[in-house]
Each structure stands twice: as structure tokens, then as C-alpha cells.
């Protein structure tokens, strides 16, 4: 079954940047979970989650992101999510995840500064 | 009485097939007068219902199916997601407000599938009984065309 999804770990301005592309759903979110769960050794005030090339996300993806963000908040770290798609932003807002330590940015440059 | 056109897909209740359902349903929706945003909402809503089937309907190791019917009315699309799995007590549907602070949220999901369906679709109903499967119906009205 060929489903469009990729996830990779990059670094920018000293911060870990998790880049995701394609669709995040019940089938692909375990792969995202794996990459996010391997970040605990990284040092830095925040993790950047680049969803610029994600065109589909639902509550399964949000659950994975929320789980990771909860672990980050125990270390007083932020999760900075990058998306310029209104639909993706809408899904975050319906879930109520825009509070707590998850912040949405439209561009990676902004997400890496704060 | 004329019968409404209906597209039915039935797929194994396994996670890799939810995307197949999304494709089929968005194909139907794109033939009606929905906006792109409507179609994105419909894709998430139907995926949430299918994900619930994948995660809850059948015991581990038992293969089950999920049936998704897309019924094309003149002014609305109705999607019916049904399974013949375990069912559940619908009085236990937790609202987003009192769920969001629970510490037992799963890694893969927030337990908010039905909340998403209610937020994204115009109307929805859930019918379930323990031991006899679940039916989730959801409806979205086609926007009124101007001119």
C-alpha cells in the first residue's frame, strides 16, 4: 500500500526540526511518533515541527503531536508547529491544542527564533 | 420514489485503508457543489469515523470490514460508516471539554473522533449497541449556488 508520507529530522538555528510531508493519519502517525520519541536526547528550548508539506491531518496526528508536546512540557520545552494551511490550523484549533506548549507559526524562520 | 445515487466502499478495518476511503469519498464530494474547504472537512470526518472502527470495533487478530456509503442527495451528501463489531454504550460518549484534561489520552488519537465529526459536518448521528456494531451517519449540505 503506497501512502504518501515522509518524516525526517533536520536541524536549523541549533534546533531540531522534524519535517513531515504528505498525510498524517492512523496509518502514518506511528512513523511520526517514532521520530518524535527519539528527540529526548536533544538540547534546546524548543522543537520545530515542520508541517508545511502536510496536506492532511486528523485527530490521530494531533494525538501523536500532543503526546510528544506533553513530554516536552515536562522538560519546559516548546513545540513550534509550522503550517501555512488554514485547514491544518483549523484541525489544531478544533482539538484545543493551541493552548499549552504548542504554538503555530506560518514560517519556519519565525518558529526557529522564538 | 427515486433512489438517490449512492457510492459504497467496503474495506478491511485496517489503518492503511482509511486513506482509500478518503479518496473515494472525496471523489464523490467533488462531483457535488462543495467548496475545497468542505471537501477537506468531509475527508477528516469520514477518516475519524473509519479510524474509530479500525481502533475499536474488532478484537485484535479478528479481521473485520468497514462499510462507507456516500449518498448523494440534491442538496446534501450523507455518509454512513458502519461496522459489525463490538459496538459501545453511546451514553459514554465523552465531550471534548471534559476529556481534554484526562491523563489517559492515547498516543494515537485524542478520543475526539466524534467531536471532530460534529464540528466539521452539519449534522451527525451515532447508533450503537454492545455486541451488534455501530453506525455513524453524517451530513453536509451543498452550498447554495449564487446566480
What does this structure look like?
- The complex is a heterodimer of chains A (114) and B (147).
- In chain A, 36% of the residues lie in helices and 34% in strands.
- With 114 residues, chain A is an alpha/beta fold.
- Chain A has one domain (5-38, 46-113): Transcription Regulator spoIIAA (2-Layer Sandwich), CATH 3.30.750.
- In chain A, strands 1-2-3-4-5 form a 5-stranded mixed β-sheet.
- Chain B is of the alpha+beta class and 147 residues long.
- Chain B has a single domain (6-141), classed as Heat Shock Protein 90 (2-Layer Sandwich).
- Chain B contains 4 helices and 5 strands, in the order βααββααββ.
- Chain B has helices spanning 18-29, 36-57, 96-99, 113-120, and strands spanning 6-12, 65-72, 76-83, 123-128, 134-141.
- The radius of gyration of chain B is 16 Å and the shape is globular.
- Chain B starts with 5 loop residues before the first strand and ends in a 6-residue tail after the last strand.
- The chains are: A alpha/beta (114), B alpha+beta (147).
- Chains A and B meet through helix 1, helix 2 and helix 3 of A and helix 1, helix 2 and helix 4 of B.
CATH H-level superfamily title of chain A: STAS domain
- What CATH first level of chain B would be assigned? Alpha Beta
The appropriate CATH architecture of chain B is 2-Layer Sandwich
Rg for CA atoms of chain A: 13 Å
Number of domains of chain A: 1
Portion of residues in helices of chain B? 25-40%
- Classify the secondary structure makeup of chain B into a structural class: alpha+beta
Largest sheet: spatial strand order of chain A: 1-2-3-4-5
Ranges of chain B with pLDDT <50 over ≥5 residues?
Answer: 96-106
Q: Roughly what fraction of the amino acids of chain A lie in strands?
A: 25-35%
Helix content of chain A: 25-40%
